[in-house]
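Board notes (copied after class):
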Amino acid sequence: MSKFILHNADLVTEENSSLSINNRSFLYADGFFESIKVINSSCFNLAQHFNRITETAEFFMMDINFSFSEFKLLLDKLIEKNEIVGGRIKMVFYRDSKGKYLPIENKISFVAEIEKSVNGFTLNENGLKLGVFTDMRKDKSKFSNYKTTNAAISVLASIYAKENVWDDCLLINSENNIIESSNSNLFIVKGEVIYTPFISDGCVNGTMRTYLKEKIDFVERSIIKEEILDADEVFLTNAIQGIRWVESFEKKKYQSHKFARLAFDKVNF
């Protein structure tokens, strides 16, 4: 069976799809992406994803030309056409315009592909092993809050983690605060309190982070490396993998993942 992708409002087979070499996301990283979990043939937390898409488009000064209901209908068709029950959708949005650095217009276009994956969220059986990536730092700016197609820091951090036999790396900002991992928001636990970095410290404004904000209590504040080493528990969240508990950070080993289980129970259904 052919795999279908979505290019704006058109469903086309993967082999018949193509993008111009002049695509601005490729030339200038003039775009952003979104990853959406599919559970029981429906998009999980779609309203929050749409909110982030519209906010990111506004930041990029791109003109959104579809409503939430139109957007949902298109993704529902993509899921149905590919006969997906559990899966993940990857979308890339780009400014569809000619021009050099200065675009001629600000029309937005997107492509979306889908693949099968686990139907629902599962809590990792083995805890994650983390290190820290210090070769590059994220700025404390609005730009850092969005999932832009310039993801060099996450790419290099992922390579660095693999070289050091870690599952992931934590990232730091320009003031040496720990802000997130290469692909997830960060939460630490001390005593009975859950902490997570401020969005203004430069982490991605994750949809799972926002979802959890309505389900559990946590405190937002800047976090330094020493606090992670002193924490009782650490866990990560993202839209596709849900909640993942951490076994170790550098030489520190954590003895609990009670709060990770609590967060998992809030998103699993």
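Comment from the instructor: The longest strand covers residues 31-39. The CA atoms of residues 121 and 242 lie 6 Å apart.
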